[in-house]
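Give me the fold.
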Amino acid sequence: MGLFLTDPRCIRQRAFVNVNAWMDAGIAGKGLTIFHDDIDKTHSECCVDIIRTILPAARVLSGSISYKTENHEVTECTIACRETGERMAFSDFIEKYDVSQINNSTSGRASDDLDTPIARYMRAMIEKYNLFCTGSAGNSESKNNKFKGAFVMVSGVYFFKDTDEIRDYGPAWDFIDFSMFMTFQTGTSFAAPFLNAMGGLLRSRYGRDITQDAIYKYFKNHCYHLGNPGKNPEYGWGIPIMGDVNEECFKGGDSVEDIVFNSLPINGPLRITSLFGKRDTGISGASTYHNGVDLGRDLSKPETRVLSVKDGIVSANFWNDLRGWVVVVRHDDIYSTLYQHLKEKSPVLMGTKVAAGDEIGIMGETGNSAGVHLHFELHRNDNPIDPLLYLESVKEEIDMTEQQVRELNRVISRCWDKMQLL
């Protein structure tokens, strides 16, 4: 293993995306074969080291994929492998070495076309062999990835000058799916194998039959969002974070079906004041990892009603010294939602059936709270996941961008530090 294992920056990056916890749990990629497509040998060795560090039990091969086209169709596609010294047809190589994943870290000419002959060919190969494929998005306006439209496209990010600020690297492209750290180096080439190996962790834990679409959905549901809410050209959906290693989130090779909210959790505009994920509020007793999102009150009304986002049954109605008054609604065998810091005990009793949009309480500031707001959580198989994307589908408006939220949290933290000195 090389610097990716021992470099302090890389250790921090792996911890941020929760990869270290999966490695510590012994998820190591046993039974997986990953092919890394790259032209430069030294460049390739760095990328392979990233994959082998995260998946030490996987077989990692490297080399190059080349192809010929005629009449807008791929007529020949071959793989040349450095380790075996072989050159053979793409399908023959995949079958001979039971390849389950491919990462590409080489650039091609810039184009917005997502339906090129090679993209169509690779989509067919991904479906035929159930491959999980990632590619680097590119570092300049003139070059990007030849497999876009088929592979999951990854852009690069980094911690700015060892602070908590995360910045993007490379141009903005509409086809970018996710962002990932570039390890101790510079270039999206090193972000792509990082994410590919994280997909390998999922397959190592849940089985090789998990599809690329299912892995994509998992990453999308476990993202640390950057830039504007939702998918954006700078960061894609954001930085995927590995969830709890004990979470059961795949069935029969596919991801658990997404929940659909049929109502907002409040009867007013959606004003997000704190996001899901890592945070530092400076408030004593407040968690450093936020398991939900905080929603501000409707400033035009004296009180803001709290609503169930979907049909369900009230499974909990209780007091907690930190959470205050809490209601939990169970929607099915997989999903539940939690509503925290209610003004008073909800009159909706446990076992009561509620419909989407039904009132289950009033927004308050009970428990450990800095002011009137709703802390809202979405749980899948009893594990918290980011509810932002689901709220987006029913939102009326979001008054703050995520960058503004982070800046507000930094201001709150600074103000709290000053108060502590008084």
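The two ends are 50 Å apart (CA to CA).
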